[in-house]
Automatic annotation (TrEMBL):
Pfam families: SPW. This is SPW repeat-containing integral membrane domain-containing protein. The keyword Plastid does not apply. It comes from the Bacteria. The chain crosses the membrane at residues 26-49, 108-129, 135-155, 185-202. The lineage of its organism: Bacteria, Pseudomonadati, Pseudomonadota, Alphaproteobacteria, Hyphomicrobiales. Residues 110-202 form the SPW repeat-containing integral membrane domain. Keywords: Membrane, Transmembrane, Transmembrane helix.
Length: 220
């Protein structure tokens, strides 16, 4: 069931961003309700990725242990670790439980928060830099994807996804030279924004004490 939940949330986030991407080029305007819905969906993405990974890891181990794949997929199975002593969490303070719920497997390095903010600025470059089309369409598309990548990378198991923004940073820096729509001051702003995004996307950021089995090696 966790896998089905992940298959709903993660692709839905991508589809929602796609709808926002196509609105200015095809419709010429943005839908406020669509933006709100997309923001809510994107926020859910990093919180679902580690659960999907854990489910895949459990299915893999259960299959190797001889458990039927489809029965385990639909009905679950016994714990595969040696330590199966039940523990109670109900006596913990509510604030501690909520904090663990919000930050379990997800954290918010300032570099990723700044990357997402920069993506938001890219979506309003006509107001900030006086950009015109077709360059603005490029900014809008890049900004949407930069935000999606940065928020997704807030999940520790997907932290390496942030490196995609290095490519978008390079494109942002080059775009005013390849597309029409920028003025002189705006061109300098694009170059600076692209270089800043590249710099923000290189550090991994702080990691929690959580471990994800063999996937730890992929968190770079």
């Amino acid at each position: 069931m966790v896998l089905l939940f992940g298959l709903l949330i993660i692709p839905l986030g991508v589809v929602s961003v796609s709808f926002i991407i196509i609105q200015p080029p095809m419709i010429g305007a943005l839908c406020t309700l669509c933006i709100v819905q997309t923001a809510v969906t994107i926020v859910m993405v990093p919180f679902s990725i580690d659960e999907v990974l854990a489910s895949c890891q459990f299915l893999y181990r259960a299959t190797k242990a001889g458990e039927p794949f489809w029965r385990t997929f639909w009905c679950g199975g016994p714990a595969l670790s040696e330590n199966q002593t039940p523990t109670t969490d109900l006596d913990r303070p509510v604030a501690e439980i909520l904090r663990e719920f919000v930050t379990g497997g997800v954290n918010f390095p300032w570099t990723l928060v700044a990357s997402a903010a920069l993506g938001g600025v890219l979506m309003v470059t006509p107001l900030v830099l006086g950009t015109e089309t077709p360059l603005y369409f490029s900014d809008h598309i890049s900004g949407c994807i930069v935000i999606l990548v940065a928020v997704t990378a807030m999940a520790e198991v997907a932290r390496s996804v942030r490196l995609l923004n290095v490519a978008f940073g390079a494109w942002i820096a080059l775009s005013p030279f390849l597309l029409e729509g920028a003025n002189g001051a705006g061109t300098a702003g694009y170059v600076a924004a692209g270089l800043v995004l590249i710099g923000l996307s290189l550090p991994r950021g702080k990691r929690s004490q959580e471990h994800y089995g063999g996937w730890d090696r992929a968190i770079v």
